[in-house]
Amino acid sequence: MPRTPERAPLNEQPRGSTRAQFVRDQIVSETDAAAFGAHGLHVLVGDDVAQHRWTADVREDIHSAAKGVCVLAAGIAADEGRLSFDEPVATYLPGVELGEGVEAVTVRRLLTMTSGIDLAWSATMMTDWPDLSDEFLRRPSRGPVFQYSNASTYTAMRVLAERVGDVADYLAPRLFAPLGIDDVEWERCPNGRIVAGGGLALRTEELARIGRLIRDRGEWDGRRLVSAEWIDAMHSDWVTAGENDGYARYALAGWDGPGAAWRLHGAYGQLLIFAGDAVATLTADDHFGADAMAARVAVILADAQQQ
Fold first, then answer.
1. 279: left (phi over 0), alpha (psi -120 to 50) or beta
2. In whole angstroms, what is the distance from residue 156 CA to residue 136 CA?
3. pTM
4. DSSP letter at 188?
């Protein structure tokens, strides 16, 4: 994975330019120079907002950034007393066959990818078995170790659905409506459940609203939508995930890095990058350029914190 690039400090902010406009212009310049396949950019710094588009403004799959929305869903349910992050999954799914060691797996371990259960991604994983979560849970666990799998988030959302009904319907009045996001489309499996770890279609600016909510620790326009506890856990209590830059540590859907930043990261360059009071939201179609672009954006946001 690419290292965070060396970069000279930003020039002084031009007179009349807001902090967000200044950061946006720097990111646009870096994006164009790298020929990164970006679609849209939204920058929030403090209360300042600036945006830029390279393609038409349409909803598109945010891929694994949707895992962060799943964490918010579980957090809201926990706030309502409907779900415990630390209760064994078997408590919520009686009668489901469990593999060796899976009786100790909790919702928290599913959402932090520490179930220790191996089930690799494939384009047909939602249809390869009658029920993906049943297949996932019947496999053995190697203990509380990192094992990234979309099936892990999917299984967590199946557990949540047992307590709240359809997860997308549950979130509509509790998360999406307060954020002004209407008519949300979330891809579903043959069993009718959301696919959870991806398949959620949002515009760049709609994804940025989720970024603002996360930056503001669960508050939106003075209203608390989810406890700060769950937001903080998205970028703390890190678990070891690997050795590559930007992929060494994982929490509740959040990756540590690049640099001092942290991020939600979906395939093909769907990025929410957090640094201090700044959030950069990128949507794109450039899988192999995303890590280098995230590193460039992280440097720009770090510099902006010093302005």
1. beta
2. 11
3. 0.94
4. B
